[in-house]
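User: Hey, quick favor. My workstation is busy. Could you predict this chain's structure for me?
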Amino acid sequence: MGNNQSKFHPSPCKQDCYTCAEQYVPSATKQHERSHLLRDLDDAEAQDAVQQLIDSTQDNYQHIRERLDLYGNAIAKRWQESTAKKRGVLLRSAMPDLLTNRYSIVHSFYTRDRLFKISRQSASGRIERETANRMQRRENDRYLLPNLDEASLSKSATRFLALMRYRAYARPADWFLFDAEQSGVEFHHSGRTRLYNPHCVVLRGKNFGQLIQWEVQAAHRWDIVGFPRAHFVLGVQFNISQLIRRTLDQLLERGHGSPPLGRYAWYALVATEFRSPNPSVERPAYYDQQFFAPPRFDARQAAEMFRLRHDSTYDELQRVQTDPLYARHRIKQVEDLAIDKTVSEKDKQLRICTYPLHAVTNFVRWGWLSKEAEFVSFAWKKCNRNIVIGSPLPLEYSYALDRFEACLVAALTPMVEELGTLLAYSPAFQ
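Assistant: No problem, here it is.
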């Protein structure tokens, strides 16, 4: 153990800055808990720990690419012709702790709280405490991949194939921010022991995976990430690669003899982006991003998306003002909310009278966001030749992004709160 024998001191702003704090210190870590939730590594140990995860992940994906190049047709055919039950057996065999259902993580905190009470309130002695600790470790492993589950992967004929394609042929850096966001709850709130070193890890460019001293601008751009969070997310990426490789190997082992060579059918699937032949059931990429190409920020696409959303709020406002039947239908929806059954008649009428104002508010909000998105797109078009990975952004583009982010937070926060209230009192939840 290195006992934090590092050449560098921790980030000076990580205690007060949200961006840096979430890269270093889990929310569940209190000062008195640090001894068993954070384990110090010296610089050499930290570099070895990061490099081992990167090398193991790359080795898994190299193995997967080689199999796809040789047996792409057989892989696609065997997976698509298998029943959901057989696919589930393969996935459980590859990773027994994989989540069962899509929203199983909702039960995570209840289960952990129960295990915590068992381990702390045990009256039966050492055996029960050890059993509870073993169950706790298993729960930690299960929720390490909150966006992947057996049901979603096994019931679809293409989702696992899409996951394999877009992971094996992408760089780890392309998925890092997405994986960091998806595993954020686990990083901050589980009882899993974290490895600690005051360095950051480079996540952009040719020095990917190297330890480097904390630097405020690069850390706030997530070009470099505090070692605890970086190591945790790289571990998540390794687990995903293990799941795919083991499932693929078991799939190829099924049947008699070697699978036939060929990959034209696989290339045909790739060309369609693994989309359903029935477009009516197709979901957008942001709903199931892990089964599409790595997410990339496109300033022009963002501006167009916000413009279309603003246009739809204008149409809504026009209909509320000019179409009595439509306005009556929308007001009836407000009256049907369960919350209106708990308030006085006066308050209920006030809610109905103020409903048309919501259409005005939404029109103004989305117009504001649309205008800011246009500024970002204009700044990107002007400065895109000077945007280099791992280097500071041009000031004009950086200011436009900062202002756009502030507007998003200011506009979407009350909308999310309103949506939460409506969902909670919707008849579907009663």
